[in-house]
């Protein structure tokens, strides 16, 4: 499994670069990466002007900068293809409470003919992050971008996509919490931070 971490967002709702915001004294960038440290290949997708430091990760920009998270997925799948056909674990810097158990649980549902494994929130809405995407999706993602599609959620439609209820996965609900705003980050500080790396 190849790991890919999206860190190219504008953080407009957050008010500052959320990747460098801190939770328990550790940056969200480090927190979000911690759950994927076991992956043999790890890609941090970030603009070249951002000097993020994440040991053990290769940092590269999107090939289509400014075209949204779907362009980030295209970059991740293209990069992963060099290691052969396989799965990409994709998340963003705003999911700091993820744990290795999340990825292990999602990986239980991969199989022949499957192209994506993602989750449904409590309201039944598909959530494209965090999720697993197969490299076989790359031509479809490229075609969607060429048509002007920018939404990551768009690739969760069609055959081979497995959408799992988060409530049924047996994981603590807090692992799915994200930090879109500074207020969200304050709320997340009240949860156990199982994925925060020790310093």
TrEMBL record:
Q: Mind telling me which Pfam families this protein's record contains? A: NTP_transf_3
For this UniProt entry, the molecular function terms from Gene Ontology, in alphabetical order, are: GTP binding; metal ion binding; nucleotidyltransferase activity
Q: Which residues form a coiled coil?
A: none
Q: Which GO terms describe its biological process?
A: Mo-molybdopterin cofactor biosynthetic process
Q: Which UniProt keywords apply?
A: Cytoplasm, GTP-binding, Magnesium, Metal-binding, Molybdenum cofactor biosynthesis, Nucleotide-binding, Nucleotidyltransferase, Transferase
Q: Does the keyword Lipid metabolism apply?
A: no
The protein in question is named Molybdenum cofactor guanylyltransferase
């Amino acid at each position: 499994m190849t790991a890919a971490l999206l860190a190219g967002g504008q953080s407009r709702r957050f008010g500052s670069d959320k990747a460098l915001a801190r939770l328990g004294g550790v940056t969200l960038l480090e927190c979000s990466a911690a759950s994927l440290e076991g992956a043999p290949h790890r890609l941090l997708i970030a603009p070249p002007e951002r000097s993020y430091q994440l040991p053990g990760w290769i940092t590269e920009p999107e090939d289509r900068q400014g075209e949204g998270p779907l362009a980030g997925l295209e970059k991740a799948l293209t990069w992963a293809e060099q290691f052969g056909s396989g799965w990409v674990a994709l998340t963003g810097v705003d999911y700091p409470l993820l744990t290795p158990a999340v990825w292990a649980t999602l990986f239980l549902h991969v199989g022949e003919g499957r192209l994506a494994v993602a989750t449904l929130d409590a309201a039944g809405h598909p959530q494209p992050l965090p999720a697993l995407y197969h490299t076989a999706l790359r031509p479809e993602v490229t075609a969607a971008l060429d048509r002007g599609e920018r939404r990551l959620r768009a690739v969760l439609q069609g055959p081979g996509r497995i959408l799992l209820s988060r409530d049924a996965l047996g994981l603590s609900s807090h692992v799915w919490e994200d930090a879109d705003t500074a207020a969200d980050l304050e709320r997340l500080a009240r949860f156990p931070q199982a994925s925060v790396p020790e310093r």
